Amino acid sequence: MSQHTRALTEFLAGLTYEQIPEPVLARTEDLFLDWLGSALASAGSHPIPLFERYAQKMGPADGPARILVNGQSSSAYFAALVNAASSHLVEQDDLHNSSVLHPATVVFPAALAAAQDLGKSGRELLVASVAGYEAGIRIGEFLGRSHYRIFHTTATVGALAAAVAVGKLMDFDQQQFTHLLGSAGTQAAGLWEFLRDAADSKQLHTAKAAADGLLAAYLTAEGLTGAQNILEGEQGMAAGMSRDAEPSKLSDRLGSRWALAETSFKFHASCRHTHPAADALLALMQREGLGADDIASVTTRVHQGAIDVLGRVTVPQTVHQAKFSMGTVLGLIALYGKAGLTEFHSHALSDPRVGEFREKVSMTLDPEVDGTYPARWLGRVEVTTADGRTLHGAIDEPKGDPGNTLSRAELEDKFRRLVQFSVARSDDEAGALIDTVWRLRELQRLDALA
Amino acid sequence: MSQHTRALTEFLAGLTYEQIPEPVLARTEDLFLDWLGSALASAGSHPIPLFERYAQKMGPADGPARILVNGQSSSAYFAALVNAASSHLVEQDDLHNSSVLHPATVVFPAALAAAQDLGKSGRELLVASVAGYEAGIRIGEFLGRSHYRIFHTTATVGALAAAVAVGKLMDFDQQQFTHLLGSAGTQAAGLWEFLRDAADSKQLHTAKAAADGLLAAYLTAEGLTGAQNILEGEQGMAAGMSRDAEPSKLSDRLGSRWALAETSFKFHASCRHTHPAADALLALMQREGLGADDIASVTTRVHQGAIDVLGRVTVPQTVHQAKFSMGTVLGLIALYGKAGLTEFHSHALSDPRVGEFREKVSMTLDPEVDGTYPARWLGRVEVTTADGRTLHGAIDEPKGDPGNTLSRAELEDKFRRLVQFSVARSDDEAGALIDTVWRLRELQRLDALA
């Protein structure tokens, strides 16, 4: 085993509640509420009921863990599966920039399901979640940009992040964490190919990542052994799925850098790659007092990853695809001033003005933007006005990023809007859930989170 | 979608029982019995009980599908999971040479579990299994040798082969098979890294491949969509996991070439990469009348894949590792004339003469052997005798290969020995299972297979 994998597994085994700074614990609660809203928002939306039916068919009729969208009980495996599918549907879950990992949608479903199964407390859930974030983010950074060009990092690395969270709930020692990474890493899968067909794999990816990670942890607890060097070995993850892996990323400032706190909340309900340009356009329009009709064309200056992920969608056919259409997102921003769930579902495909605006938008690779990515997500747009002027818009930190984060009031507001969208819970129930999450570290059991 | 993926999915959708030649149906029954023996042989052996406990913890207490090693009932998902782990433990399951895929251990567990769940007949099971073999073998050939250097093809391609078998039981049409390949392919995972630590991932790989493939099929039946070009697309399996993919392999002589019938039975209880040399050494020793003590050294002339897979094991620490030790296998052959399960468990680690013989064995890359691999697995050994002679042994088709296959009597004998090894069933029960398998195409239900 390399020094970096050893350092990471030693950190994970040794991590205690007391070591975690108060702002990191508070941010974990913020992220948990944000995740819960994303999961509940998808109730009733395709393809989530498919996963619910699968759990009913293959799983037990009852169990210690809860499926959020329908309130049913099941075993931890199926709760993790369905909840992880649910929380990655409406594109409102969190993102860590430099790893391009959505940690919440894989870490929290596995951690909550296992914590309910094992009778763990809120504090134990928080420590386990921090462990999952810290490991997952570093493994994502380790695998690098070449990995993300083909593989959906939240799917591949997600299995390891979820596994680590469950392993922490099980009090794994350093050797068990090594076996765990081996068994989770050898299950790591998820390809971007589905994107060009707007297929349902994104939810399958997060569902499987959380469930596979949980499976790895439960089997490790039983005594299953795994490869000792799955990340860096000659036939390991980096060897098979990356060309620019950086081993030192695995142990980057463990215990002093809290990568969890670098995670961004999503403000717009679209693919994160559209957010910098959306914020830059909005800032420019507000500054110059422009309306949508005043704009003749928009050139967004972006990083290569945005072109890779968004470049496939020309004319979106579904709401989900619209969230990956730069032109559609900027059309909603220009016409409605925001691109939330309601705007996507009510206007993205049906308002012909959005389609017209979409045709005015292009993407071009910008060396400066690309050079700072993925550490920073700079927003740069060039607008040609109807009256012939060329204007520039720029933001250096999108809304929701750590330096421009959401307050607890804004998070509560977002949570209530997400729950209202699906009507998965009443307003009163939403309020009770908010109260429960803000008291997370006092809870002895997590049965109330359902 | 490319013409090759389209041709493959059209073939799968259109395949009928009547189209399959009688010798292929009979060979499918042979392969099924051979698989059943491999699954039962592992009862009680680590790590199979771990998977059984996982199924008990996460699955329902009862269900339509059967777990072979313990006779318990569960849902199809967990039966596929445990049975697929079971059948890849004792290294006695089948292998298709040019794809380097072990089809039985992934196709049959998924197909049998789903057939029991869906109330299908023996004929339907046979057609589904043929579909799984034909698709899996071609996809393995398509991904090529570069894939196998890092990825365990039986794990990655196994998910697609298992999915296809279950999809055929569900009477999928061409479009559903396309979605199915998308959802199975994006779950494809399994790295060789575990091999150098003799870790338990091999069973995890087959367990997950069968279970993931089955999951993909059940979700596709519910309406889950998948990438339309998961095999050949720019962000698909070949793009991410191969450097020498050949798309034409996907549709190679569909309907006229029956790849299933090219599958080899394992005669020795070791990694298939050791078999050509083992047979060549045995032939040479019999021809020359040599005993183990007459041999000073053995140089095995092998293909690169053998060095990649076997080269990691120097001094085996476990029986499983011994099956990947060329020197140990040849030591058993030289000392006992065979390398079956009993020889491995009774002598491979404990007989010091085996260890001494192991030290006399080396591997070297042979251009001729490497050039014909993986279509042919040539066995070439060079022996230096204690009295200073240099002798050459060669076989062109290992025992168990299609041109040197096992008779039904030999298959029954192998099955009985496998079942006796674990005592999973009595001799009478073993005989009844043999009778059931030979009547497979007359069975209306598959409940008797348990």
Write the layout of secondary structure elements.
The structure is a homodimer of 450-residue chains.
Chain A: H1 3-14, H2 22-41, H3 48-58, E1 65-66, E2 73-74, H4 76-86, H5 104-118, H6 122-150, H7 153-169, H8 174-185, H9 201-222, H10 237-241, H11 275-288, E3 295-302, H12 304-310, H13 319-322, H14 326-336, H15 341-348, H16 352-358, E4 361-365, H17 367-372, E5 379-385, E6 390-395, H18 408-422, H19 427-438
Parallel strand pairs in A: 3-4
Antiparallel strand pairs in A: 1-2, 3-5, 5-6
Helix pairs in contact in A: 1-8, 2-4, 2-6, 2-18, 2-19, 3-4, 4-5, 4-9, 5-6, 5-7, 5-9, 6-7, 7-8, 7-9, 8-9, 11-14, 14-15, 14-16, 18-19
Account of the protein in words:
Chains A, B: Pfam families: MmgE_PrpD_C (PF19305), MmgE_PrpD_N (PF03972). Chains A, B: InterPro entries: MmgE/PrpD_sf, MmgE/PrpD_sf_1, MmgE/PrpD_sf_2, MmgE_PrpD, MmgE_PrpD_C, MmgE_PrpD_N. Chains A, B: Belongs to the PrpD family. Chains A, B: This is MmgE/PrpD family protein. Two copies of one chain form a homodimer. With 450 residues, chain A is α+β, with helices and mostly antiparallel strands. Chain A has two domains: 3-266 and 411-442, Orthogonal Bundle (2-methylcitrate dehydratase PrpD); 272-395, 60s Ribosomal Protein L30, Chain: A (2-Layer Sandwich). Chain A is 53% helix and 7% strand. Chain A has 19 helices and six strands. In chain A, strands 4-3-5-6 form a four-stranded mixed sheet. Chain A has a two-stranded antiparallel sheet with strand order 1-2. In chain A, helix 2 packs across helix 4 and helix 5 (104-118) packs parallel to helix 7 (153-169). The longest helix of chain A is centred in the first third of the chain and has 29 residues, at 122-150. The mean pLDDT of chain A is 96.
